[in-house]
Amino acid sequence: MGSTCYSAYSIQSLNPTCPSSLIFTLHKPQLQQIHNIKETTTTRSVRTCNSNTRTRKRMTGVAAMNAVSTPEVDVQNQQELKKGIAELYDESSGIWEDIWGDHMHHGFYEPQSSVSLSDHRAAQIRMIEEALRFASVSDDPAKKPRSIVDVGCGIGGSSRYLAKKYGATAQGITLSPVQAERAQALAAAQGLGDKASFQVADALNQPFPDGQFDLVWSMESGEHMPDKQKFVGELARVAAPGGTIILVTWCHRDLSPSEESLLPEEKELLNKICKSFYLPAWCSTADYVKLLQSNSLRDIKAADWSENVAPFWPAVIKSALTWKGFTSILRSGWKTIKAALAMPLMIEGYKKGLIKFAIITCRKPE
User: Fold this and answer.
1) Cβ-count burial of 338 within 10 angstroms (0-12 exposed, 13-18 middle, 19+ buried)?
2) Which of 203, 232, 317, 344 ranks highest by number of CB atoms within 10 Å?
3) Percent of the chain clearing pLDDT 90 (strictly above)
């Protein structure tokens, strides 16, 4: 993906009218500013400004660069990306489950905590509960979600947990056939075969009718989406009126009002991570907020939980350096090895304040 890994999406994400052919083909990062950001230690509300002269100049640049892109190149790049994501998780999911269990996401920790592997598994459950609490999902029998979609479900850990917690039906989608098959087997083994179902499907073209789900759940899958605008649009489309959307994802830091792009060394670091984890372009929390606003979603809240996930990557590296972890990675395949070698880059990104672990929640109007 080279140097376009960051720059392509930074334009696509902030210009909802920008043609999809721009993805993977633009070269110069151009970001529309988001102003008037009010922050507390945990949450932020965002109000966007009107277009100004600088924005109009950027749109002119977008139009010029679009002239050299083609839909055929875009489709090919997206297909290659999806193939890489599927193969990475086909290779690595069994290793993850064997060492870490069936939740394929960060844990939620108290800041500066020192924890063992068993604590990490508990922290992964705590991540789910904290996300539900942040989004104010009700436990009231009359208000709790009855139908749930897990977008980027992994081996179904969140789907099964939520189905059991709420007595709901949950449907999970993933690009990985190995994950979908394993998720269904675990649901049957846990007595949830009639509550949780899984299939191979694209999050950018979900196989569900409009307005089907009371809770739309995306736990650390957004970073894999090559078209963030379409991704958010699909989350909004399948949400039922009054339904809740919970998006937990990796972001890059928000830009300051005086910045038009990340620093060159920051983009270089993200590009290295992109190549190893089969990620397209990164975006910021502010970018996601703007996309949610463009879909007329309400009660949008966002928070930076980077400090609360800090122990996670060091623990993953520690488990990979055990004899069991090391030999499993070597046997799994080159894609898993590449991802393992990139884990220190994630720690570097967090420490530099470049990578942010973001939660963003909202509600679809009734």
Assistant:
1) middle
2) 232
3) 66
Structure confidence by residue, pLDDT tens digits, 49-97: 333 333 333 333 323 223 333 445 487 888 999 999 999 999 999 999 9
pTM: 0.80
Do residues 91 and 337 make contact, with C-beta atoms less than 8 angstroms apart? no
C-alpha–C-alpha distance, residues 126 and 120, integer Å: 9
Residues 157, 147: Cα–Cα separation, whole Å: 16
Strands of the chain, DSSP E: 37-39, 44-46, 147-151, 169-174, 196-200, 213-219, 239-252, 298-304, 355-363
- What pLDDT digit, counting tens, does each position of 167-189 carry? 999 999 999 999 999 999 999 99
Provide the sign of the torsion angle of the four alpha carbons 106, 109, 111, 117, taken in this order.
negative
- Cα–Cα distance for residue pair 88/179, rounded to 1 Å: 11
Tokens of 267: 């983009």
